[in-house]
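Subject: 5-methylthioadenosine/S-adenosylhomocysteine deaminase structure
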Amino acid sequence: MTTVVIRGGRVLRPDMTVDRADVLVDGETGTIRAVGDVPAGDEVLDATEGLVMPGLVNAHTHAAMTLLRGYADDKPLDRWLREDIWPTEAALEPADVRAGTDLAMAEMIRSGTTAFGDMYFYMNEVAEAVEAAGLKARIAHGIVTVGKDASAAQDDLEEGLYIAKSHDGTADGRVRTAFAPHSLTTVSEEQLAAFVPKARAAGVPLHFHANETRDEVDPIVAERDERPLAYADSLDMLSQGDFLAHGVHLDETEMGLLADRGTSVVHCPASNMKLASGMAPVQRLLDAGVGVALGTDGAASNNDLDVFDEMRDAAMIGKLAAGDPAAVAAETVVRMATEGGNRALGFDGGRIEEGAAADVVVVDFDAPRMTPVHDYVSHLAYAATGSDVRHTLVDGRVLLRDRKLTTLDLDAVRERAASRAADLVDRAG
Ligand SMILES: N[C@@H](CCSC[C@H]1O[C@@H](n2cnc3c(=O)[nH]cnc32)[C@H](O)[C@@H]1O)C(=O)O
Ligand SMILES: [Zn+2]
Protein backbone atom coordinates (compact mmCIF):
# COMPACT_ATOMS: atom_id res chain seq x y z
CA MET A 1 0.00 0.00 0.00
CA THR A 2 1.56 3.26 -0.96
CA THR A 3 -1.37 5.65 -1.37
CA VAL A 4 -4.45 6.02 0.81
CA VAL A 5 -7.60 8.00 0.06
CA ILE A 6 -9.46 9.34 3.07
CA ARG A 7 -12.95 9.56 1.64
CA GLY A 8 -16.29 11.12 2.54
CA GLY A 9 -15.30 13.45 5.33
CA ARG A 10 -14.74 17.10 6.02
CA VAL A 11 -11.31 18.68 6.26
CA LEU A 12 -9.92 21.13 8.80
CA ARG A 13 -7.95 23.59 6.66
CA PRO A 14 -4.87 25.50 7.87
CA ASP A 15 -7.02 28.64 8.25
CA MET A 16 -9.31 26.64 10.60
CA THR A 17 -12.23 26.57 8.17
CA VAL A 18 -13.95 23.24 7.49
CA ASP A 19 -15.30 21.97 4.19
CA ARG A 20 -16.16 18.73 2.37
CA ALA A 21 -13.05 17.22 0.80
CA ASP A 22 -11.23 13.94 0.30
CA VAL A 23 -7.53 13.59 1.05
CA LEU A 24 -4.93 11.52 -0.81
CA VAL A 25 -1.79 10.64 1.11
CA ASP A 26 1.37 9.00 -0.17
CA GLY A 27 3.07 6.47 2.09
CA GLU A 28 6.16 6.50 -0.12
CA THR A 29 6.97 10.19 0.22
CA GLY A 30 5.13 10.55 3.55
CA THR A 31 3.24 13.58 2.31
CA ILE A 32 -0.28 14.72 1.49
CA ARG A 33 -0.63 14.53 -2.28
CA ALA A 34 -4.01 16.16 -2.83
CA VAL A 35 -6.98 17.63 -0.97
CA GLY A 36 -10.42 18.04 -2.60
CA ASP A 37 -11.43 15.89 -5.57
CA VAL A 38 -8.66 13.36 -5.47
CA PRO A 39 -7.68 10.43 -7.73
CA ALA A 40 -8.09 6.82 -6.55
CA GLY A 41 -5.56 5.32 -4.14
CA ASP A 42 -4.42 1.81 -3.22
CA GLU A 43 -6.50 1.85 -0.05
CA VAL A 44 -9.58 3.74 1.10
CA LEU A 45 -10.33 4.93 4.65
CA ASP A 46 -13.90 5.94 5.30
CA ALA A 47 -14.30 9.37 6.88
CA THR A 48 -18.08 9.75 6.65
CA GLU A 49 -19.36 11.94 9.52
CA GLY A 50 -15.71 12.55 10.36
CA LEU A 51 -13.27 15.42 10.33
CA VAL A 52 -9.83 14.99 8.77
CA MET A 53 -7.36 17.05 10.78
CA PRO A 54 -3.63 17.23 11.45
CA GLY A 55 -2.34 14.69 13.97
CA LEU A 56 -1.94 15.98 17.52
CA VAL A 57 1.46 16.50 19.10
CA ASN A 58 2.24 15.59 22.70
CA ALA A 59 5.37 17.73 22.97
CA HIS A 60 6.41 16.85 26.52
CA THR A 61 6.00 13.47 28.10
CA HIS A 62 7.88 10.67 29.81
CA ALA A 63 6.22 7.90 27.87
CA ALA A 64 7.26 4.91 29.96
CA MET A 65 5.83 6.56 33.08
CA THR A 66 2.61 4.83 32.04
CA LEU A 67 3.97 2.04 34.28
CA LEU A 68 3.60 4.41 37.25
CA ARG A 69 0.10 5.60 36.35
CA GLY A 70 -1.90 5.79 39.58
CA TYR A 71 1.08 4.67 41.67
CA ALA A 72 1.42 7.90 43.68
CA ASP A 73 -1.09 10.72 43.46
CA ASP A 74 -2.08 13.84 45.35
CA LYS A 75 1.33 15.23 46.36
CA PRO A 76 3.34 18.35 45.42
CA LEU A 77 6.05 17.95 42.75
CA ASP A 78 9.09 17.92 45.01
CA ARG A 79 7.77 15.29 47.42
CA TRP A 80 6.13 13.26 44.64
CA LEU A 81 9.47 13.01 42.78
CA ARG A 82 11.67 12.41 45.82
CA GLU A 83 9.45 10.11 47.87
CA ASP A 84 7.70 8.06 45.20
CA ILE A 85 8.82 8.48 41.62
CA TRP A 86 12.62 8.63 41.76
CA PRO A 87 13.02 5.66 44.15
CA THR A 88 10.83 3.53 41.88
CA GLU A 89 12.51 4.74 38.69
CA ALA A 90 15.84 3.69 40.21
CA ALA A 91 14.68 0.08 39.81
CA LEU A 92 13.67 0.48 36.15
CA GLU A 93 15.16 -1.92 33.63
CA PRO A 94 15.39 -1.42 29.87
CA ALA A 95 12.55 -3.90 29.24
CA ASP A 96 10.30 -1.89 31.57
CA VAL A 97 10.90 1.22 29.50
CA ARG A 98 10.14 -0.67 26.30
CA ALA A 99 6.88 -2.03 27.80
CA GLY A 100 5.82 1.36 29.20
CA THR A 101 6.67 3.16 25.96
CA ASP A 102 4.72 0.65 23.87
CA LEU A 103 1.73 1.14 26.15
CA ALA A 104 2.07 4.92 25.87
CA MET A 105 2.24 4.74 22.09
CA ALA A 106 -0.82 2.49 21.91
CA GLU A 107 -2.70 5.09 23.93
CA MET A 108 -1.34 7.98 21.87
CA ILE A 109 -2.09 6.44 18.46
CA ARG A 110 -5.62 5.57 19.58
CA SER A 111 -6.20 9.16 20.71
CA GLY A 112 -4.87 10.84 17.57
CA THR A 113 -1.32 11.74 18.56
CA THR A 114 1.19 11.44 15.72
CA ALA A 115 4.34 12.88 17.34
CA PHE A 116 5.68 13.21 20.86
CA GLY A 117 8.56 14.75 22.77
CA ASP A 118 10.02 12.21 25.18
CA MET A 119 12.50 12.59 28.04
CA TYR A 120 13.36 9.46 29.97
CA PHE A 121 15.95 6.69 30.51
CA TYR A 122 17.03 3.74 28.35
CA MET A 123 16.42 5.72 25.22
CA ASN A 124 17.94 3.10 22.91
CA GLU A 125 14.85 1.05 23.77
CA VAL A 126 12.60 4.05 23.16
CA ALA A 127 14.15 4.70 19.73
CA GLU A 128 13.53 1.05 18.77
CA ALA A 129 9.98 1.19 20.08
CA VAL A 130 9.19 4.37 18.12
CA GLU A 131 10.71 2.94 14.96
CA ALA A 132 8.53 -0.19 15.26
CA ALA A 133 5.29 1.60 16.15
CA GLY A 134 5.54 4.11 13.31
CA LEU A 135 5.13 7.31 15.33
CA LYS A 136 7.36 10.39 15.23
CA ALA A 137 9.25 11.44 18.35
CA ARG A 138 11.96 13.77 19.49
CA ILE A 139 13.63 11.73 22.21
CA ALA A 140 16.17 12.59 24.89
CA HIS A 141 17.85 10.97 27.85
CA GLY A 142 16.82 13.01 30.92
CA ILE A 143 19.90 14.00 32.90
CA VAL A 144 19.72 14.35 36.69
CA THR A 145 23.06 14.88 38.42
CA VAL A 146 21.96 16.21 41.79
CA GLY A 147 22.69 13.63 44.49
CA LYS A 148 25.09 11.66 42.28
CA ASP A 149 28.86 11.34 42.75
CA ALA A 150 31.12 12.96 40.15
CA SER A 151 31.61 9.87 38.05
CA ALA A 152 27.93 8.88 37.99
CA ALA A 153 27.05 12.48 37.08
CA GLN A 154 29.59 12.48 34.27
CA ASP A 155 28.20 9.17 32.96
CA ASP A 156 24.67 10.59 32.92
CA LEU A 157 25.77 13.69 31.00
CA GLU A 158 27.72 11.56 28.52
CA GLU A 159 24.73 9.25 28.07
CA GLY A 160 22.56 12.28 27.29
CA LEU A 161 24.99 13.40 24.63
CA TYR A 162 25.46 9.90 23.22
CA ILE A 163 21.69 9.40 22.80
CA ALA A 164 21.34 12.82 21.17
CA LYS A 165 24.10 12.05 18.69
CA SER A 166 23.35 8.44 17.89
CA HIS A 167 19.64 8.43 17.08
CA ASP A 168 19.00 11.75 15.36
CA GLY A 169 17.32 11.26 11.99
CA THR A 170 16.87 7.49 12.34
CA ALA A 171 13.70 5.56 11.41
CA ASP A 172 13.48 7.47 8.10
CA GLY A 173 13.68 10.75 10.00
CA ARG A 174 10.80 9.89 12.34
CA VAL A 175 13.16 9.78 15.32
CA ARG A 176 14.87 13.05 16.18
CA THR A 177 16.73 13.82 19.39
CA ALA A 178 17.41 16.50 21.97
CA PHE A 179 19.85 17.07 24.84
CA ALA A 180 17.87 17.11 28.06
CA PRO A 181 19.21 18.35 31.36
CA HIS A 182 16.19 17.56 33.55
CA SER A 183 15.94 21.10 34.97
CA LEU A 184 17.93 24.14 36.07
CA THR A 185 18.06 22.82 39.63
CA THR A 186 18.84 19.13 39.05
CA VAL A 187 21.97 19.73 36.91
CA SER A 188 24.70 22.10 38.13
CA GLU A 189 25.93 25.30 36.49
CA GLU A 190 29.39 23.80 35.80
CA GLN A 191 27.85 20.75 34.18
CA LEU A 192 25.50 22.83 32.03
CA ALA A 193 28.35 25.15 31.03
CA ALA A 194 30.44 22.13 30.00
CA PHE A 195 27.75 20.22 28.09
CA VAL A 196 25.43 22.76 26.45
CA PRO A 197 28.20 23.69 23.96
CA LYS A 198 28.64 19.99 23.15
CA ALA A 199 24.92 19.72 22.38
CA ARG A 200 25.15 22.82 20.20
CA ALA A 201 28.12 21.32 18.35
CA ALA A 202 26.08 18.14 17.79
CA GLY A 203 23.31 20.29 16.31
CA VAL A 204 20.55 19.05 18.61
CA PRO A 205 18.10 21.24 20.51
CA LEU A 206 17.64 21.38 24.28
CA HIS A 207 14.58 20.07 26.11
CA PHE A 208 14.27 20.75 29.85
CA HIS A 209 11.80 21.49 32.64
CA ALA A 210 11.72 25.15 33.69
CA ASN A 211 9.77 27.49 35.93
CA GLU A 212 7.39 24.72 36.91
CA THR A 213 6.79 25.48 40.59
CA ARG A 214 7.45 28.37 42.97
CA ASP A 215 9.59 26.01 45.05
CA GLU A 216 11.86 25.62 42.05
CA VAL A 217 11.95 29.30 41.00
CA ASP A 218 12.39 30.97 44.40
CA PRO A 219 15.70 29.32 45.38
CA ILE A 220 17.23 30.21 42.00
CA VAL A 221 16.19 33.83 42.42
CA ALA A 222 17.40 33.89 46.04
CA GLU A 223 20.76 32.31 45.23
CA ARG A 224 21.59 34.02 41.95
CA ASP A 225 19.60 37.22 42.13
CA GLU A 226 18.32 36.58 38.63
CA ARG A 227 15.31 34.91 37.09
CA PRO A 228 15.67 31.25 36.03
CA LEU A 229 15.41 32.01 32.33
CA ALA A 230 17.99 34.82 32.56
CA TYR A 231 20.26 32.17 34.11
CA ALA A 232 19.35 29.69 31.34
CA ASP A 233 20.05 32.34 28.72
CA SER A 234 23.46 33.07 30.23
CA LEU A 235 24.25 29.38 29.65
CA ASP A 236 23.05 29.54 26.02
CA MET A 237 20.05 27.35 26.84
CA LEU A 238 17.44 29.37 24.96
CA SER A 239 17.74 29.11 21.20
CA GLN A 240 15.60 28.61 18.16
CA GLY A 241 14.42 25.01 18.27
CA ASP A 242 14.86 24.53 22.01
CA PHE A 243 11.76 23.76 24.03
CA LEU A 244 11.07 23.85 27.73
CA ALA A 245 8.30 22.16 29.65
CA HIS A 246 5.87 24.04 31.89
CA GLY A 247 6.84 27.74 32.06
CA VAL A 248 4.24 28.27 34.78
CA HIS A 249 5.97 30.99 36.81
CA LEU A 250 7.38 33.50 34.31
CA ASP A 251 7.81 37.26 34.44
CA GLU A 252 7.49 39.67 31.49
CA THR A 253 11.22 39.74 30.85
CA GLU A 254 11.38 35.95 30.67
CA MET A 255 8.46 35.88 28.23
CA GLY A 256 10.25 38.47 26.09
CA LEU A 257 13.42 36.37 26.15
CA LEU A 258 11.54 33.27 24.98
CA ALA A 259 9.97 35.21 22.12
CA ASP A 260 13.30 36.79 21.09
CA ARG A 261 15.19 33.51 21.19
CA GLY A 262 12.54 31.40 19.44
CA THR A 263 12.31 28.88 22.30
CA SER A 264 8.94 27.13 22.61
CA VAL A 265 7.07 26.48 25.82
CA VAL A 266 5.30 23.16 26.21
CA HIS A 267 2.27 23.88 28.35
CA CYS A 268 1.17 20.89 30.46
CA PRO A 269 -2.10 22.03 32.03
CA ALA A 270 -3.26 18.75 33.57
CA SER A 271 0.10 18.09 35.25
CA ASN A 272 0.20 21.69 36.49
CA MET A 273 -3.27 21.35 38.01
CA LYS A 274 -2.69 17.89 39.47
CA LEU A 275 0.57 18.86 41.18
CA ALA A 276 -0.94 22.29 42.00
CA SER A 277 2.12 23.85 40.34
CA GLY A 278 0.18 26.92 39.21
CA MET A 279 -1.47 28.45 36.15
CA ALA A 280 0.80 29.16 33.18
CA PRO A 281 0.22 32.60 31.61
CA VAL A 282 -0.65 31.06 28.24
CA GLN A 283 -2.49 33.98 26.66
CA ARG A 284 0.28 36.36 27.69
CA LEU A 285 2.88 34.01 26.19
CA LEU A 286 0.96 33.91 22.93
CA ASP A 287 0.52 37.69 22.95
CA ALA A 288 4.27 38.05 23.50
CA GLY A 289 4.89 35.93 20.40
CA VAL A 290 6.16 32.81 22.16
CA GLY A 291 5.53 29.45 20.47
CA VAL A 292 3.31 27.35 22.73
CA ALA A 293 2.77 23.61 22.38
CA LEU A 294 0.85 21.13 24.54
CA GLY A 295 2.12 18.19 26.56
CA THR A 296 0.57 15.66 28.88
CA ASP A 297 3.77 15.26 30.94
CA GLY A 298 4.15 11.71 32.25
CA ALA A 299 1.11 9.52 32.87
CA ALA A 300 1.83 9.55 36.61
CA SER A 301 0.94 13.26 36.82
CA ASN A 302 -2.00 13.45 34.41
CA ASN A 303 -3.02 10.48 34.37
CA ASP A 304 -3.65 9.88 30.67
CA LEU A 305 -1.92 10.76 27.41
CA ASP A 306 -4.94 12.16 25.60
CA VAL A 307 -4.09 15.49 23.92
CA PHE A 308 -7.82 16.23 23.42
CA ASP A 309 -8.06 16.44 27.23
CA GLU A 310 -5.03 18.71 27.19
CA MET A 311 -6.66 21.08 24.68
CA ARG A 312 -9.72 21.37 26.84
CA ASP A 313 -7.70 21.80 30.03
CA ALA A 314 -5.48 24.42 28.36
CA ALA A 315 -8.51 26.44 27.28
CA MET A 316 -10.14 26.21 30.70
CA ILE A 317 -7.10 27.05 32.84
CA GLY A 318 -5.95 29.66 30.31
CA LYS A 319 -9.21 31.55 30.77
CA LEU A 320 -9.03 31.24 34.52
CA ALA A 321 -5.40 32.45 34.58
CA ALA A 322 -6.27 35.45 32.40
CA GLY A 323 -9.57 36.17 34.17
CA ASP A 324 -11.03 36.36 30.68
CA PRO A 325 -13.29 33.81 28.95
CA ALA A 326 -12.06 35.09 25.58
CA ALA A 327 -8.49 34.04 26.41
CA VAL A 328 -7.03 30.80 24.96
CA ALA A 329 -9.94 30.27 22.57
CA ALA A 330 -10.90 27.02 20.85
CA GLU A 331 -8.99 27.78 17.66
CA THR A 332 -5.93 28.72 19.72
CA VAL A 333 -5.73 25.37 21.53
CA VAL A 334 -6.22 23.43 18.30
CA ARG A 335 -3.29 25.37 16.82
CA MET A 336 -1.20 24.73 19.93
CA ALA A 337 -1.83 20.97 19.68
CA THR A 338 -1.00 20.83 15.96
CA GLU A 339 1.17 23.61 14.48
CA GLY A 340 2.56 24.63 17.86
CA GLY A 341 3.62 21.09 18.70
CA ASN A 342 5.25 20.50 15.33
CA ARG A 343 7.09 23.80 15.61
CA ALA A 344 8.33 22.95 19.13
CA LEU A 345 9.56 19.50 18.07
CA GLY A 346 10.84 20.58 14.67
CA PHE A 347 8.59 18.34 12.57
CA ASP A 348 6.88 19.43 9.38
CA GLY A 349 3.31 18.39 10.23
CA GLY A 350 0.30 20.27 11.48
CA ARG A 351 -1.45 21.23 8.23
CA ILE A 352 -3.84 19.40 5.92
CA GLU A 353 -2.61 20.69 2.59
CA GLU A 354 -0.78 19.42 -0.45
CA GLY A 355 2.89 18.78 0.23
CA ALA A 356 2.64 18.74 4.04
CA ALA A 357 3.71 15.70 6.06
CA ALA A 358 0.88 13.14 6.04
CA ASP A 359 0.43 13.07 9.82
CA VAL A 360 -3.34 12.91 9.75
CA VAL A 361 -6.19 11.82 11.98
CA VAL A 362 -9.89 11.33 11.38
CA VAL A 363 -12.16 12.28 14.27
CA ASP A 364 -15.71 10.88 14.31
CA PHE A 365 -18.43 13.42 14.93
CA ASP A 366 -21.28 10.95 15.44
CA ALA A 367 -21.17 10.58 19.24
CA PRO A 368 -24.05 12.07 21.28
CA ARG A 369 -21.42 14.28 22.93
CA MET A 370 -20.56 15.75 19.51
CA THR A 371 -24.16 16.50 18.46
CA PRO A 372 -25.26 18.91 17.00
CA VAL A 373 -22.32 20.41 15.12
CA HIS A 374 -22.52 24.20 15.03
CA ASP A 375 -18.76 24.54 14.97
CA TYR A 376 -16.22 21.76 14.34
CA VAL A 377 -13.33 23.56 16.02
CA SER A 378 -15.41 24.16 19.14
CA HIS A 379 -16.04 20.41 19.44
CA LEU A 380 -12.35 19.59 18.99
CA ALA A 381 -11.47 21.88 21.87
CA TYR A 382 -14.40 21.40 24.23
CA ALA A 383 -16.29 18.17 23.48
CA ALA A 384 -14.10 15.58 21.73
CA THR A 385 -11.98 13.00 23.50
CA GLY A 386 -9.32 10.68 22.17
CA SER A 387 -11.89 7.89 21.91
CA ASP A 388 -13.53 9.79 19.04
CA VAL A 389 -10.46 9.14 16.87
CA ARG A 390 -11.15 6.61 14.12
CA HIS A 391 -8.00 6.59 11.96
CA THR A 392 -4.43 7.77 12.60
CA LEU A 393 -1.73 8.05 9.92
CA VAL A 394 1.93 9.03 10.24
CA ASP A 395 3.91 9.85 7.11
CA GLY A 396 0.98 8.43 5.16
CA ARG A 397 1.14 5.05 6.90
CA VAL A 398 -2.02 3.87 8.67
CA LEU A 399 -1.29 3.20 12.37
CA LEU A 400 -4.95 3.10 13.46
CA ARG A 401 -7.61 1.81 11.09
CA ASP A 402 -11.23 1.91 12.28
CA ARG A 403 -10.00 2.17 15.89
CA LYS A 404 -7.71 -0.86 15.48
CA LEU A 405 -3.95 -0.55 15.92
CA THR A 406 -1.97 -1.86 12.96
CA THR A 407 1.59 -1.83 14.35
CA LEU A 408 1.04 -2.79 18.00
CA ASP A 409 -0.76 -5.82 19.47
CA LEU A 410 -2.88 -4.10 22.09
CA ASP A 411 -3.62 -7.15 24.27
CA ALA A 412 0.04 -8.17 24.36
CA VAL A 413 1.16 -4.60 25.06
CA ARG A 414 -1.30 -4.24 27.94
CA GLU A 415 -0.35 -7.58 29.46
CA ARG A 416 3.37 -6.90 29.28
CA ALA A 417 3.01 -3.41 30.74
CA ALA A 418 0.85 -4.62 33.62
CA SER A 419 3.21 -7.43 34.55
CA ARG A 420 6.37 -5.29 34.23
CA ALA A 421 4.72 -2.58 36.35
CA ALA A 422 3.86 -5.09 39.09
CA ASP A 423 7.43 -6.47 39.09
CA LEU A 424 8.89 -2.98 39.11
CA VAL A 425 6.94 -1.94 42.17
CA ASP A 426 7.96 -5.20 43.92
CA ARG A 427 11.64 -4.64 43.15
CA ALA A 428 11.50 -1.01 44.26
CA GLY A 429 9.41 -2.03 47.32
N1 LIG B 1 18.44 10.05 34.05
C1 LIG B 1 17.61 10.68 35.04
C2 LIG B 1 16.15 10.55 34.69
C3 LIG B 1 15.51 11.76 34.22
S1 LIG B 1 14.19 11.42 33.10
C4 LIG B 1 13.07 12.69 33.46
C5 LIG B 1 12.55 12.71 34.84
O1 LIG B 1 11.53 13.69 34.93
C6 LIG B 1 10.64 13.26 35.93
N2 LIG B 1 9.37 14.01 35.87
C7 LIG B 1 8.14 13.62 35.50
N3 LIG B 1 7.26 14.61 35.56
C8 LIG B 1 7.94 15.69 35.99
C9 LIG B 1 7.58 17.04 36.27
O2 LIG B 1 6.44 17.48 36.15
N4 LIG B 1 8.59 17.86 36.66
C10 LIG B 1 9.84 17.45 36.82
N5 LIG B 1 10.23 16.18 36.60
C11 LIG B 1 9.29 15.33 36.19
C12 LIG B 1 10.52 11.80 35.66
O3 LIG B 1 10.01 11.09 36.73
C13 LIG B 1 11.96 11.43 35.34
O4 LIG B 1 12.65 11.04 36.49
C14 LIG B 1 17.97 10.11 36.41
O5 LIG B 1 19.04 9.58 36.54
O6 LIG B 1 17.18 10.24 37.34
ZN1 LIG C 1 7.99 16.39 32.71
